[in-house]
Design goal:
- By secondary structure, this protein is of the alpha/beta class.
- The chain has 2 domains: about 140 residues, Four Helix Bundle (Hemerythrin (Met), subunit A); about 200 residues, Translation initiation factor eif-2b, domain 2 (Rossmann fold), CATH 3.40.50.10470.
- The chain is built from 12 helices and 14 strands.
- A hairpin with a 2-residue loop joins strand 13 and strand 14.
- The radius of gyration is 20 Å and the shape is globular.
- The structure holds 5-S-methyl-1-O-phosphono-5-thio-D-ribulose.
Length: about 350
């Protein structure tokens, strides 16, 4: 396999062959080591999601789908009610690992529906249906990413300079990725891009994962600190911004990695199109606006200590560490899903996407 295919077709999350585990690439070890972890228990799964060993909205959903199936197989119950009550406990526990990416609860809800809609079946049979459902979530993600990549690519020209924030590549999904998908697909077709990857403080997904994926795929990538985005835009080096999403509200307000809204504000200032790419499963019409999206707050140590040999701030210094921010819909040029390109007014275009 060439470098490009090795990146785009990586199995970063899969069901173990024994069906009693989920196997993931530990994203916290990249780029130094490609280490696979085998997750067997509810705590293994919760910790892997909470600690961002598996991360990126679609990948979290895929992992949760496989994970709840693995846990369901361990439930010792002959009767539906006992089975369902234990299933619910596992479901709630996994769902509490990360609140902002809607794909986590979306995938768990899909799995739960399989259980509740087949009450009359023996547990063995329900397990078979659960296995099919988690595999379907995975397969569908591959198809969605491929379609998103195609629509995204239609907005780009050969030689464009692209700025991206965080990581929305194959590691964050199943194949190709969302925001990075058009770049990999374009590369497959012989196109060249010059990509600027924000390092993405504080957890460095841009440095550790995005620049790694693009470099390995042979795509021209330049890593910058988050506070350099304005300068590269001012220099005329950026023709489009491509970012992923963790939850899109009905009006198009979009939660994505902290710092995304700043990039969008800069893009507006410099007249650069700002595109959000994600599967329709990331659109949450129950959130009318971004105000309804819960933002995950994480440990101050991620700012003060993580990645440093010694703390970079006094122990007693207060830190504010939101993992996501909301980009106002007015700053977004288009939202690209597997169904096509949505333009404002998003209340109408997203509603059409969800209605099918
Ligand atoms: O905290 P993370 O690393 O899970 O945040 C990820 C992002 O913000 C991604 O941009 C988003 O999940 C889209 S992944 C295709």
């Amino acid at each position: 396999m060439d470098g490009l295919r090795q990146v785009t077709h990586i199995d970063n999350v899969r069901l173990g062959e024994d069906k009693a585990s989920v196997v993931i690439i530990d994203q916290t070890q990249l780029p130094s080591k490609a280490e696979y972890l085998t997750l067997r228990t509810a705590k293994d799964l919760y910790d892997a999601i909470f600690e961002l060993k598996v991360r990126g909205a679609p990948a979290i959903g895929i992992c949760a789908g496989f994970g709840i199936y693995v846990l369901a197989r361990t439930i010792d119950a002959d009767h539906y009610d006992d089975f369902y009550s234990q299933f619910r406990k596992y479901r709630e526990y996994l769902d509490s690992a990360r609140p902002t990416a809607v794909n986590l609860s979306w995938a768990l809800n899909r799995m739960e529906r399989v259980v509740t809609e087949h009450k009359e079946l023996p547990v063995e049979e329900i397990l078979r249906l659960l296995e099919a459902e988690c595999n379907a979530i995975w397969q569908e993600d591959m198809e969605m990413c491929r379609a998103i990549s195609g629509y995204g690519l239609s907005l780009l020209k050969n030689g464009d300079g692209i700025l991206t924030h965080c990581n929305a590549g194959p590691l964050a999904t199943s194949r190709y990725g969302t925001a990075l998908g058009p770049l990999f697909l374009g590369k497959e077709q012989g196109m060249e891009f010059k990509v600027f990857a924000d390092e993405t403080r504080p957890l460095l997904q841009g440095a550790r994962l995005t620049s790694y994926e693009l470099q390995k795929a042979g795509i021209d990538v330049t890593l910058i600190c988050d506070n350099m985005a304005s300068l590269v835009m001012k220099n005329g080096w950026i023709q489009a911004c491509l970012v992923g999403c963790d939850r899109v509200a009905a009006n198009g307000d979009t939660a994505n990695k902290i710092g995304t809204s700043g990039v969008a504000i800069l893009a507006k200032h410099y007249g650069i199109p700002f595109y959000v790419l994600g599967p329709s499963s990331t659109v949450d019409l129950s959130c009318k606006t971004g105000e309804d999206i819960r933002i995950e707050l994480r440990s101050p140590d991620e700012i003060k200590k993580k990645f440093y040999q010694a703390p970079m701030a006094l122990e007693e210094v207060k830190c504010y560490n939101p993992a996501f921010d909301v980009t106002d819909h007015s700053l977004i040029t288009a939202i690209i899903t597997e169904h096509g390109i949505c333009y404002p007014p998003y209340t109408e275009s997203l509603a059409r996407v969800i209605a099918g």
